[in-house]
Design brief:
This protein has a single domain, classed as Glutaredoxin (3-Layer(aba) Sandwich), CATH 3.40.30.10. The chain is built from six helices and nine strands; from the N terminus they run αββαβαβαβαββββα. It is an alpha/beta fold. It is 40% helix and 20% strand.
């Protein structure tokens, strides 16, 4: 029985060693998601009212966040954290990255609203909006859940996923960050990925 266990462990090590050797980001991975099917093609509206795609927007490492401007808690905190992480990356590691704030509330978050919101946090944070269908399609690509609690109230809230996704051009999804992650943690982990590109 012990020999069988040792043989299985050896076989698993032999299988996983090449996989790790082929993963240029193995030393960086903090989550167990790995190279999951998160992210993909989208078509949205940018801050100037033009239609843009993921290829237009993710041209260098980019933090992607889905939220809404009327959000009272997670969205402003996560956006502020992402903005600080961008500054720390530039100051401490010499890396410039971008950030996208994609609304999940296009009924209220017009082009002007998302532009003004993103600009408050960082000059390289871009706000994106679109039709209900465009937003739903983008959210589906990122496995983002959201549901408005309308009920006839113009001050409704929207339940939603609060992950920030690190996307790498030409590669796609690299890592995700929970709301509990600090600006330093986001910056350090992102730097590891960028250094290994």
């Amino acid at each position: 029985m012990i020999r069988l266990g040792l043989a299985m462990a050896g076989a698993l090590a032999a299988v996983s060693a090449p996989a790790l050797a082929q993963d240029q980001f193995a030393e960086c991975r903090a989550s167990t998601v790995g190279e999951a099917a998160i992210g993909g093609p989208f078509e949205l509206i940018d801050e100037t009212g033009n239609t843009v795609t993921d290829a237009d927007m993710i041209t260098r490492p980019t933090l992607v966040y889905f939220g809404y401007t009327f959000c009272p808690d997670a969205c402003p905190l996560d956006s502020a954290r992402n903005a600080l992480a961008m500054d720390f990356l530039e100051e401490d590691h010499g890396h410039e990255i971008d950030a996208l704030f994609i609304t999940i509330d296009p009924a209220r978050d017009t082009v002007d609203v998302v532009r003004d919101y993103a600009d408050v946090f960082h000059p390289r944070m871009i706000g994106l909006t679109g039709s209900e269908e465009q937003i739903a399609a983008a959210a589906q690509q990122y496995r983002v859940f959201y549901r408005a609690q309308r009920g006839g109230d113009e001050f409704y809230l929207v339940d939603h996923t609060t992950f920030t996704y690190l996307m790498l051009p030409g590669i796609g999804f690299a890592e995700f960050f929970r709301t509990s992650a600090t600006p330093d943690e986001v910056a350090e982990l992102t730097a590891c990925y960028v250094d290994n590109l």
